[in-house]
Write a structure and sequence with these properties.
Length: 79
């Protein structure tokens, strides 16, 4: 079996829905949900899914560039 399960963001806006989707190679919806949750997707008990941006639970990914707003040594430099 090489079924693919795609999670779609169920967030609805006033005139359209969110187009985010997550394509997984999971063999079951449950496995796809688990994979999505690891990536910040929100999976509701009723089966609806929300992408990290819409669920508000987005966590910084290790691969994402982090732009520091404050140099970490700023406070200690003032000593
Ligand atoms: Zn979304």
């Amino acid at each position: 079996m090489s079924a693919r399960v795609t999670l779609h963001c169920d967030r609805l806006f006033e005139y359209s829905g969110c187009a985010s989707q997550l394509i997984t190679d999971a063999r079951s919806v449950e496995a796809a949900h688990a994979a999505g949750e690891r990536l910040g997707w929100l999976v509701r008990p009723d089966g609806t899914t929300y992408c990290p941006r819409c669920s508000g639970s987005a966590r910084p990914r290790p691969a994402a560039a982090v732009i520091p707003l404050h140099p970490p040594t700023k406070e200690t430099d003032r000593a």
